[in-house]
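Final report, closing paragraph on structural work. Over the funding period we assembled a curated collection of sequence-structure pairs, and we close with a single example.
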Amino acid sequence: MSRESERGSGADLPGETAGDAPGEAVLPGALPEALRAELIAFRRDLHMHPELGNQEFRTTAALKARLERAGLEPRVLDIGTGLVCDIGEQGDSVRPVLALRADIDALPIPDTKLGVPYRSTVPDRAHACGHDVHTTVVLGAGLVLAELAKQGQLPRPVRLIFQPAEEVLPGGAPDAIESGVLDGVGRIVGVHCDPRVDAGKIGLRHGAITSACDRLEVSLDGAGGHTARPHLTTDLVTAAAKVVTEVPALVARRIDARSGLAVTWGRVESGHACNVIPQHAELSGTVRCLDLAAWRKAPDLVHGAIQEIADLYRAKSEVNYIRGVPPVVNDPDMTELLREAMELRLGAHSVEDTEQSLGGEDFSWYLEHVPGAMARLGVRTPGERTVRDLHQGDFDADETAITVGVELFTAAALIDGIR
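Its predicted structure, as stored:
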């Protein structure tokens, strides 16, 4: 018997209330079997046709068509991809909108999965971070909530946000916000697939659940020359090596160690011949940080450390510090809303604590404006021993997670609406 069958036949239609036995839904909005099957097919279609950030035209069109079939009026974002769609009466300041957010873009890596019919059909493109699942979850929740709204059972308006370009620093969230997706929104929730958590469960954490992630590009210039006479040159190779080794240490000693501020280099290039000291060197890497306050200080700290090393070696430095995303800092009340919703649907055993990730997520930009929370959505098949990490070509998700995500969001919207 599949895990979907174990969870029920799907006989509970939107608007009906299931029994109150442990683990059963106690709110309307359980996912019907027909819609469950449709959502799995929808997710597989997205998985087969991944699109990179700001190029999600097919995905946007598919979402728009399905929402319109449900009698809704989605609006394409001003940037040309992504959607916003309202459910229920909007504009009542006493009843602020709850937003459900999904990211819709894929990654520029090949899909290496074998033996599945929904493998990517686009070379060097894959939904290897679960955004196809996030998108399907918000779509499914929207369809269920739209049916409840027709029946007069949606107590408060809800907004669906399908955001492009999460994988492109600083993310598509700022563009979506500029398009007005947060106008009238009082709270926001989201999920992110987690291959370390079993399907049927979510992971929650108060406070920071992800880390800040910025990009760093450094150029060093100076007079080159013969390696026989380094004293007559700006020894750029040595200068670059010192920047690589000393800057992370300097920055770490100038901030509280508990902030987890880390500079890590991914690329160093300089020179073409073994006996020629070059005139130019380039370095690039990332700056990650666990703490929001420390993240705000990071650019000045990094600039200062690089300048000190460059001056010591008489090199001219140019630093391009590219803001990425701040940490996702979960609001305690919104985190507990997700906990309550999940426990009502599947029981207390379905929620577990999760660690703060060093990965970045542009959901954080929304939290600069409104309170909200992100949950880790379990996508590992229970008992599976294969480790499937995010951003890997063999990543896949147990599709029972779609039902879990939909019912999590529908329950959260209903609970939030009656508080």
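The radius of gyration is 24 Å. The longest strand covers residues 185-198. We thank the funder for supporting this effort.
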